[in-house]
Amino acid sequence: MELADIIIKFVLIVIIFAISLVVAMYSTYAERKVAAFFQDRIGPNRAGPWGILQPLADGGKMFLKEEIIPTNASAFLFIAGPSLAILTACIGSAVIPWGQHLTIGSHVIDLQVTDINVGVLYIFGVVSLGVYGVMIGGWASNNKYSLLGAIRAASQNISYEISMGLSIIALLMLTGTLSLREIAEQQHGFWSHGWFTWNVFRQPLGFLIFIVCAFAETNRTPFDLPECETELVGGYHTEYSSMKLGFYLFAEYINMFISSAVMATLYFGGYNFPFMHHLGLTENWVTILGVIALFAKIIFFIFFFMWVRWTIPRFRYDQLMDLGWKILIPLAIANIVLTGVIGTIFK
Amino acid sequence: MNTFYFIAFLSIFFSILVISAKNPVHSILYLVLTFFTFTIQYILLNAQFLAIVNFIVYMGAILVLFLYTLMLMNLNKDSEPFKSNIVKIAAVLGGGCLFVVLFACFRQVGIAEPVVLKDPGLGLVKNLGKVLFNEFLLPFEISSLLLLSAMVGAVLLATKDPKTV
Amino acid sequence: MESLSNKKKLIESKPLNFWERAYLPAILSGLSITMKHFFRKPVTISYPEEKREFSENFRGMHSLKRDENGKERCTACGLCALSCPAEAITMIAAERQKGEEHLYREEKYAAVYEINMLRCIFCGLCEEACPKEAIYLDGDIVPADYLRKDFIYGKDKLVEAPLNQ
């Protein structure tokens, strides 16, 4: 690898990192604003025009608040919890293809940090690791509510990982590859050979299962039982204050961003958009428009997360487990069988 | 090679911490780190699929379940059960036997040639899949049957007997 | 038993049909309802800039009135203090001196007139008790403050501004 390539990769990593943090920051603002609109209110509008400086104000508040570590908590793990949560949230972005490639001079820049050939599984692994942050934090707080929140998070994540994995398997049977870039390439354009190229039109049921599981994995309403206020005070972050709490909340929004990106890439064509090669634009412009298209899809999914949050009430814990084990898993297995049968018929 | 020795040292270091940690939860967390070093070893061997599966299955699922049960059992009071003398003697005997075996092994050990894979891409998911579903199809399917029977057994154990309840 | 009011309704709880159990149509209709609200005009009134109109019988901060010549109406009779159920009003009366006729309408006036806004319950009994029509609760909302002593409003805050300045 040349030095120039290393520098380009480094810059790319920094940019992606910065973008995911900024998106997460503004998701907190968007969440409040969207919630307000859904409830016929205005939402935060004091910090800056339309309140767009609100995330900065929130961040400043978080940093300046008093740092509390409970006396009986195990201090190292108490700090390790939120750090791990935000770490696992951030590293997920490494394998997502953000666009095709830019050609600058003689350099061809892939808009993806790394294209490992087990990309889907990598995402899956990172997601499954995410529960450690919650569990360690909840256990280290030495508080019954936190512990219960942590246990709920663990069992919920493990249960929904299974159906998530099964729904991806059906998708992988179609794509035949685990690399996210290849999956995105296969969904090129919008229409070819008499059918839509985007996977959502080939795997509607799989997508439905995947999105439900994504809600559960990111601990969003209607599955936000680990931090269920009415039952568990604050759930696993009851004892947290200051930026450590901020990290937990931030990790949730980054997770939302990453899972939106994954959903857009796996099922909604990633950076592809209709008529991308009939517009008569140069390669670089197509790439840039593709990045914009991907971000539009991601923002739609983030909006959808919020939309659902302000529409559907929380599940009860036994209903959550019933849904996961008795409905989604059999459905996902049926989806695999169906995909196999249809795949062999149309081959 | 240096990376290998460093990671191998870390694996052994963390696994010693696993058995010496007083607090069971800490011990599980060290186990997580140990498995993480294994994952790095697999990546060094260019076995990406195995690495990621180790990551998902062991770190992401099995150890989470371990942690889950330990948290529910509430073992943090350092309530170690009393060990009788017979147990202690048995432990000494067992440890001695292990030592003898290890000693016998190490005497036979010579410096082996480093294994060179004929196909460095063997661990990649495509090749692995081809090997598993062609050459080793029968053992693969049999092991899947084994897992299925274990699953059925677990379900059977978990369901209540309608007569007794 | 016979229902006396005939208002009793029997609620049938039918088992859910397939689409109701699938839960998805319900979610979709819920999402469409919230989306309708998304585009609705917000009902918020952004308070310090915009104010909601008070109703006609709103009772806000007190004001001590002047008559048409700009003289203070209050004669310090103490009926308001007597009628006050919260005992929020105190006053010290003084004789009008020569040369102060343009300031006070009656021969006696309130040299000090204080209302403790933390005690006041804005019942309006002082207004009703006043024989001289000197006090009215026609002001704005009493503003917040940091110290308790700052809520004791004297004549400087209560008396109406002079007529023509």
UniProtKB/TrEMBL annotation, chain C:
GO BP annotation list: aerobic respiration
Short name of any one Pfam family annotated for the protein: Fer4_7
EC number: 7.1.1.-
Cofactor note: Binds 2 [4Fe-4S] clusters per subunit.
The keyword DNA damage is annotated on this UniProt entry: no
Keyword Iron (UniProt): yes
Domain of life: Bacteria
Listed cofactors: [4Fe-4S] cluster
Chemical reaction(s) catalysed: a quinone + NADH + 5 H(+)(in) = a quinol + NAD(+) + 4 H(+)(out)
GO cellular component entries: plasma membrane
Annotated [4Fe-4S] cluster 1 binding sites: C74, C77, C80, C130
Domain 4Fe-4S ferredoxin-type: 65-94, 111-140
Topology term for the membrane: Peripheral membrane protein
Keywords associated with the record: 4Fe-4S, Cell membrane, Iron, Iron-sulfur, Membrane, Metal-binding, NAD, Quinone, Repeat, Translocase, Ubiquinone
Family indicated by similarity: Belongs to the complex I 23 kDa subunit family.
PANTHER family given in the database record: NADH DEHYDROGENASE [UBIQUINONE] IRON-SULFUR PROTEIN 8, MITOCHONDRIAL (PTHR10849:SF20), NADH DEHYDROGENASE UBIQUINONE IRON-SULFUR PROTEIN 8, MITOCHONDRIAL (PTHR10849)
Assembly with partners or alone: NDH-1 is composed of 14 different subunits. Subunits NuoA, H, J, K, L, M, N constitute the membrane sector of the complex.
Function as written in the Swiss-Prot or TrEMBL entry: NDH-1 shuttles electrons from NADH, via FMN and iron-sulfur (Fe-S) centers, to quinones in the respiratory chain. The immediate electron acceptor for the enzyme in this species is believed to be ubiquinone. Couples the redox reaction to proton translocation (for every two electrons transferred, four hydrogen ions are translocated across the cytoplasmic membrane), and thus conserves the redox energy in a proton gradient.
Protein name in the entry: NADH-quinone oxidoreductase subunit I
